[in-house]
Design a protein that fits this description.
- The protein is mainly beta.
- It is 14% helix and 47% strand.
- Strands 1, 2, 3, 4, 5, 6, 7, 8, 9 and 10 form a 10-stranded antiparallel β-sheet that branches.
- The chain is globular and about 50 Å long.
- The termini are far apart.
Amino acid sequence: MWYLMRSCSALVLVAILAVGCAGTGASSPAPTATPTQAAANTPAPTAAPTPRPTATPIPMTDGEGPEYVVGTSYLTVTKSATETVVGDVTQYRGQEMTDSGTTNDPRLAGTTTTTLNADFYGTVASEWGTTRTENAEGAWEGAWSGVSWDGTATSVSGWLVGSGAYAGWTYYFHVYGPWQPYQVEGIIFEGPPPTP
C-alpha cells in the first residue's frame, strides 16, 4: 500500500512538472543517450564493507603462581547507602553491591560483594570500603579506597588477602573508568600486602 501511494504521488508530481515546464516557454534540454541494455543491467559498484575491529583476546591464566590480571567490574547495588549532609559534604555510608564482572584468572571467579562509603564534595568524592570474593577453593578479602567524579567515573585500588587455597597470597587490584563496566587491572603474588 505504501509503495502504491508513493508511486502514484511520483506520477502526479512528474505530470505537474511536465505541464509547468511546457507552459513556461523554456526550451527543453537535448535528449541524452539511452543506456545500452548491458549498461542498464550492470549493477552499480558497492563499497566493500569496512571490517569491524575485534577485541584482542585476553588469555586466561593457568590459575597458579604470580599473575597479571585484567578484566571488568560491573556493580549492582543490593543495599542503598544512608545519606547525611554535614556542612558542604554529603556522606554516603554502608552501600552494598555485588560485582558480576570477570577477570582472566580463575582464582578470582565466584561471588564478589563490596561495601561502599563516600564523602561527596559537589561532583567529586573520596571513596573507601571492603571487598570479598569467594569461590569453592577459598576467598580474597580486604580494603580498598579511591576517588570518583562526575557521578560515574571512578579510580579505586585495594589489597585483598587470600584464604583457603589462596592463603599466603595477595591480590592487588585497580578498578577505573568513566562508566560501567569498569576496567580491572592487578596482580596476584605470594606474600602479604605491603605495609603503608
